Every structure is written in C-alpha cells, then in structure tokens.
Amino acid sequence: MRLRHPDGSTVHLGYCTNVHPAEDLPGIVAQFDTYAVPVRERLGVPVLGLGLWLAAPVAAGLAADRMAVHRLRAELSARGLEVVTLNGFPYQAFQAPVVKHAVYYPDWSEPERLRYTLDLAEVLAQLLPEDAARGSISTLPLAWRTPWDAPTRQRCHNSLGALADGLAALERRSGRTVRVAFEPEPGCAIESTAQAADLLSTVDTSRLGVCLDLAHLACAWEDPREALGRLDAAGVPVVKVQVSAALESTDPVADAQVLQGYVEPRFLHQTRSPSGLATDDLDEALSTMDDGPWRVHYHVPLHAEPIPPLRATTGVLTDALREIVSGPAARCDHLDVETYTWGVLPPTRRPSTPDELAGGIAAELAYARDLLTTLGLTHTVEATR
C-alpha cells in the first residue's frame, strides 16, 4: 500500500514474505497467488507492496539473468503487487534439523554475505516501480555477538566499504538508488541503537543505515524518541522500519505456564528485562525465575492480543511510528509488517489454512494502515501499474 505524508511524499507499507517462504522462483510466484493476492483483495487496494525474501541461490540466479527478473516483475505487476524493499537477513531457509543460530550466518565478516546482498541489490534495482524514489534491503546486524574480536570487526568494516562501493556502481549503471539497512537484534553485535550509532557512524551513510525493527527496539527497552535522537546525532539514517510487536510479561513467574506455550524449536526468542536479565532463548529465561518484567523476541500478530495475561508491545510500536511519521517530514518511507512467527504460535492461535494466514496478514496490514492514518498519513496514493 502507498500512503501520503502531509509533506507530499509517499510512504510505502507492505508485508514481509518470510512469513510464507519459498526457496525457488516457481514457489515464490505460487505464493503470490496463495497469499499476496488474497491479502490485497481483502484490503481492497489496487496495489500491495511486498517485502520480498529471496534465498541466496534464487538471488544469484536472478542477478545473472535480466530476463528472469523481467518475468518476475511481470508476474508481480499482473497481480497488483510491487516491491520496493527486500529482506536480506536470512541467507537461506531453516534446514532440518533446525540450528537456531544458523540465521546469523554467513555474517558480514564472510564474503558470501556481501555477494548475496549485492545480488539482491542488482535484482531490486530492476524490480523497483518506475516512480519509486529508492529501494531498500534489510540485513543482519553484522554478526552474532560472539566471537566479536578486532579481526572480525575489521572484516565487517571492510565488507561494508565494499558494499557501499557496489551500491554506488549499481546506481551509476542502473540509475536506481538502493540502500542497505542493518537491523539491530538481541544477541548480536548490534543489539541497540547505541551500538548502531557506534558501529555505523563511520560508514557511507548515504547508502547504509539502520532497519529499525520495533519488536527488537522494545526488547532492548529503548525509548523510541531517545533511540531515534541517538541515531540522528550519529548521522545514521533509518532506511527501513519493521512494523512489529514483541511479547511482554509483567510478572513472568506468575505467567510461566502461559509463557511455556510460546517456547518452540525453530526460532531464537531472546528475552530481556530492564533490570539486566539477558538470555538467548525463552526456555533459558524460564529457568531463571527472574521476576521481570520481560520482553521476548517473539513477533506477535499486531492486531491480536497474545494469550492473557501476556500482552504485546504495541505501545512501543505506536510511539515509534509517531516519531517516524508525525513530523514535518517522514523519517523513513519503507515500512514492512514482519510477523514471521505465525507458523509457530501456540496451536490455538496458529492459522490452520492458507486462507486463514492470508486473513491474518491482511488484518495486520489494516491495523498498521489505520494506525498510520491516525498519525497523519492519508491512504490516497495509487501506484503506477
């Protein structure tokens, strides 16, 4: 969807397709018909934006085949879909047996991560609508926090320099601007906006910046206004926003049985408290008997409350979006709803059919759209098909 800011600029709102991942091009196109088109029809909009996820082999194949990208763009357009942003965080889908930390590899100290991201940029430059100001790619926050030594940090810094050079070369060739956004996440080298300001202030910030995931911001117990001010002071732009909410418990000892229902084997659910608790997964936190409050890195549907007495951090989400879009100019124009945990919700909350999942995605987007309109945006912009 496209929204208009009072300054006249376009703000793009879509959803990330890692909620229903496919690992090859035919599968990706099939997902458009199964999920994206039904979502667009439920919302009643002429064009719906997708935060497309492409596994590394698919990205490499498309980057080397302009005709294949042209066909993909035609498939999108025929269905009233468009792409201005890609999710470049997961390199490939989770493989069985699941190793939860695998999503952080290859990291930015390894050449495969640079190659994958430049492949994505090459593809995105060709998929962008003609009237889109720019494209964006979200990526992991450099690396998992261990090992984070001087050689690893230097290799990451070198990769970011090569990335900026590659994006500049792409812009000269294609005339399209693509920026890359590093997404602070609990447990990583960049977990907070303070770390983002420290590690990204020396890179080419005309092409590189931050993807502000609002669930992660909540888990870091950061105040949105202070966080954005910190990034502004360091000259680090917010290139992309993941519109997401985390799981919260005000009394985790009393809520332990309910929280146990959110323990699952596929994703890490890092858990943080303002008093210092910091665990890499929810089951580890439950073994501490810490009295909280807790926020859990578990993206919950925006429009639906978690199992009581748990709640979602939608208050942080609202405060952050107010800071981002309610000023004289939008601080970010690429907003992506990213609730990839639909498939691992407790059974009573989990969609059982593709139609139910499409309905849930549509409801989340409607929630985000309605919230943004209360913050001053208008839903009056139609895309060029």
TrEMBL record:
KW Isomerase (keyword) present: yes
Keyword Isomerase: yes
A Pfam family that the UniProt record links to this protein: AP_endonuc_2
Alphabetical list of InterPro entries matching this protein: Xyl_isomerase-like_sf (IPR036237), Xyl_isomerase-like_TIM-brl (IPR013022)
GO molecular function: isomerase activity
Domain Xylose isomerase-like TIM barrel intervals: 66-247
Annotated keywords: Isomerase
Superkingdom of origin organism: Bacteria
Protein name as catalogued: Sugar phosphate isomerase/epimerase
Species classification: Bacteria, Bacillati, Actinomycetota, Actinomycetes, Micromonosporales
